[in-house]
Amino acid sequence: MAHIIVLGNEKGGSGKSTTSMHIATALARLGHVVGGLDLDLRQRSFHRYLDNRRATAERKGLDLACPLILDLPDASPEDLPEGVNIYDHRLSAAVAEQESRCDFIVIDCPGSHTRLSQVAHSLADTLVTPLNDSFVDFDLLAKIDPETYALKGPSVYSEMVWHARQLRAKAGLQPTDWVVVRNRLPAQQMHNKAKMGRALEELSKRIGFRVAPGFSERVIFRELFPTGMTLLDLRDMGVERMNISNVAARQELRDLITALNLPGVTPDF
């Protein structure tokens, strides 16, 4: 059965699709069969990233490890039993069709609250929540006191994750491993960065997630999207000598894959 990795964050601009693509491609390059499913039916950034990768491989004759592009199957409300939600049905059918074929299925959720996103969170064996390293985005996880930065309570997103975990428990499934990934980390040891770290560590103990390092702000991520390439494909792109920034970015990806602690995965790239 496929291990399902869900990328979830109800705020846009946190690097979800970039993180989804690098996780999926890293696993594919390590020899695993990986399916990629984009639940943002409007933007479809993850899906387009995967499309761009296949187009580049075909155009340049490259033998690239490519995740499979998965789609939600079509369904008509008239064909469903009474009371069955069409989005529940389509997502469950998409996963059921591929879970015996894939080692991993990476699901990228939209940056908003949708029924599809709710269902995906209940399917997650591993939930990855990329978070920009600022208190603007910390609000996604919890409410804080504006003067003392003391935690006042969980956010609506954290409560949604809690309900998804309850559904898994009732179904007799293994608990979701929730990993909050700190993206766009500043290079310097800034005061705000340290406060964010302390707040996340305290909150992690209260609502049950792990904290992992993510990606720093780098121009290369924006440059890679049109070609569908990732940090692991630079030599395939003809880059003979990587600069210090590229080497550091690859190390960040290696650290992230290691932190996720996925079954059967050794990030030897």
TrEMBL record:
Pfam families: MipZ (PF09140)
Source taxon at top rank: Bacteria
InterPro entries the record matches: DNA_Partitioning_ATPase (IPR050678), MipZ (IPR015223), P-loop_NTPase (IPR027417)
Protein's name in the database: Division plane positioning ATPase MipZ
Gene source species: Gymnodinialimonas phycosphaerae
